[in-house]
Design a protein that fits this description.
There is one protein chain. The protein is of the alpha/beta class and 507 residues long. The chain has a single domain (71-190, 247-506), classed as Alpha/Beta hydrolase fold, catalytic domain (Rossmann fold, 3-Layer(aba) Sandwich), CATH 3.40.50. It is built from 13 helices and 11 strands. The chain has helices at residues 2-23, 37-48, 95-115, 196-213, 217-223, 249-255, 279-284, 297-314, 330-341, 369-372, 406-411, 435-451, 495-506; strands at residues 50-53, 125-137, 140-151, 162-170, 177-183, 259-263, 318-328, 347-351, 389-392, 417-422, 480-484. Strands 2-3-4-6-5-7-8-10-11 form a 9-stranded mixed beta sheet, sandwiched between helices. A two-stranded antiparallel sheet has the order 1-9. Helix 8 packs across helix 9 (330-341). It is globular. The structure holds alpha-D-glucopyranuronic acid (GCU). Alpha-D-glucopyranuronic acid binds at residues 329-330, 354, 367, 371, 376, 432.
């Protein structure tokens, strides 16, 4: 007996070995590298010739190494790179010069130094509708479509990438509707529940199954003859008084006649450094670590959103010319990167995006360049790490050495609709995010909106002197808009301003 067991085990090991063999190095399918985040981080430092990085500051103000929160120290290099001057020093005075010369220069520098380049060849994504459900969100009948975008992995079958997205549109719309795509976890808003008849059938089948599985169950069911183990999910009662609570952002969108889509960033690229040899980045790199100019997670999430938009363009329920992108915090960064690089998105709601988002890299306040070159490095291109280097073959660099800054990223969105949203530190939209740095970038980006015939915040473009408006005072007259609400780390309180603002321009 023992011997037989041993043989079976040996065979299993041999088979396992064979499976391994398939994955072993061959020019076609190189073995997938599985670094820890720290190993991957060190690998990138080595590729760049960096020996010492400055550590990122702590967000906790009582720590000795806490981030700077002293406004007098926040602008070590106050002069921003000129958004409307070309690399050759020429003033950009016409839209043609912007589109043909200056904008491509800025794109190039953001790709090379900050977010990374899209690979030359990225495999195709094939979308399928997995489930279509008719539901109710509050009073609004909706159609919810669960979608999967499968990335062709024939070039490296060891990695699967399936993008998860949920599209929810009002069922009674007269024509195609605007859609706000949001980075987040897709779920059915209110799955349709079986009718009483169907529920009874389900319960009968369930009872029979339980008894077949364990005959002693019969006695229990006999004791409670009216009991139904499967019940309907409790649905929110649309008649229930709401009190002070305002409708959720998705209810507001539906009430305005819009649809929304939720796209899962993690199904595109996982949110950690160890995952960088997997996901879409890993698939294209055949499981190998990145090179310094390769894309980071933010660019990958933005790429996934653009693929989601590819699907929306094929769906007759959607007005694909009126699709926006939304996100908060790291996904606020991703939403800005999406809007900047993908001109088919008509609008963006950029929530509490902080450093790597709207906030200036040059600012020394809260989250630092050194945060983005430390634990958050995989959001960025490897090259970005140079700006956190204390000792390196190329010397020392800081955020002040970046050839571009975030006002120029925002300018790439012009003249399309961009709504910059923040909350307040007192309610949890921490000082870490540096609202003031985002305000300055938004002010500075305005010149490009104006050059292209659109409107900016309606104040001057002097980013050193313009004062941030009081909380709850929106500057919403232009295609570029700003509003700091009095809530926390969310953009939900700004939806009731965002929707009418966007509708005014989308007409
Ligand atoms: C951290 C990080 C921020 C990010 C935030 C979040 O605070 O430093 O960059 O925006 O997490 O996404 O919640």
């Amino acid at each position: 007996m023992k011997r037989i067991l041993f043989l079976v085990m040996a065979a299993a090991i041999a088979l396992g070995g064979q499976a391994q063999e398939k994955k072993s190095p061959s020019p076609e399918y190189p073995l997938m590298v599985t670094f820890t985040a720290q190993q991957d981080h060190e690998n990138m430092m080595k590729q760049l010739g960096i020996t010492v990085l400055r550590p990122g500051p702590s967000g906790n103000e009582s720590d000795p190494n806490h981030a700077n929160y002293d406004e007098t120290l926040a602008n070590p290099c106050p002069e921003l790179p000129e958004v409307l001057t070309t690399k050759k020093g020429k003033k950009v005075t016409t839209p043609e010069m912007w589109w043909e010369v200056r904008r491509p220069e800025i794109v190039e520098e953001f790709e090379r130094e900050v977010y990374g380049r899209l690979p030359a060849r990225i495999p195709e994504v094939t979308w399928t509708v997995k489930t279509t459900d008719r539901e109710f969100v509050g009073w609004t009948p909706v159609i919810a479509k669960q979608l999967v975008g499968r990335v062709d992995n024939s070039a490296y079958p060891l990695i699967d990438v399936e993008i998860d997205m949920m599209l929810v549109v009002p069922a009674n719309a007269r024509g195609p509707v605007p859609v706000l795509m949001m980075f987040g976890r897709p779920s059915f808003p209110a799955p349709a529940q079986p009718s009483s008849e169907d529920l009874e059938k389900l319960n009968e089948a369930f009872r029979a199954m339980m008894i077949a599985h364990d005959p002693s169950m019969k006695e229990i069911f006999d004791r409670y003859p009216a009991y139904t183990p499967i019940t309907r999910a409790a649905m929110p009662n649309p008649f229930a008084p709401r009190g002070q609570a305002e409708p959720s952002p998705t209810e507001q969108l539906l009430a305005a006649g819009w649809g929304y889509a939720t796209i899962d960033p993690n199904s595109i690229q996982t949110d950690n450094g160890a995952g960088i040899t997997r996901g879409i980045i890993g698939l294209v790199n055949k499981g190998q670590p990145r090179k310094p100019e390769d894309w980071g997670a933010l660019r990958a999430w933005a790429w996934g959103a653009a693929r989601g938009l590819d699907y929306l363009e094929t769906d007759p329920l959607v007005d694909a010319k009126k699709v926006g992108i939304e996100g908060v915090s790291r996904y606020g960064k991703a939403a800005l990167v999406t809007l900047a690089f993908e001109p088919r998105f008509a609008m963006g709601l950029i929530g509490s995006s902080g450093k790597g988002g709207v906030t200036l890299h040059r600012r020394n306040f809260g989250e630092a360049v050194e945060s983005l070159t430390g634990g958050e490095y995989y959001w960025m291109a490897g090259n970005y790490m140079k700006y956190g280097a204390e000792e390196a073959s190329f010397g020392r660099k800081t955020g002040c050495d970046l050839p571009i800054d975030s006002h120029q990223l925002l300018a790439l969105c012009a003249p399309r609709l961009a709504f910059i949203s923040y909350g307040i530190p007192e309610k949890g939209d921490a000082k870490w995010l540096d609202q003031q740095g985002s305000w300055m970038a938004t002010i500075a980006a305005g010149t490009v909106y104006k050059l292209l015939g659109a409107r900016d915040l309606g104040v001057s473009n002097n980013y050193m002197t313009e004062k941030m408006p009081p909380v709850n005072t929106g500057l919403l007259d232009g295609e570029l808009a700003w509003r700091q609400h009095d809530g926390g780390h969310t953009d939900a309180p700004n939806f009731k301003h965002f929707i009418p603002w966007a509708l005014k321009f989308l007409k």
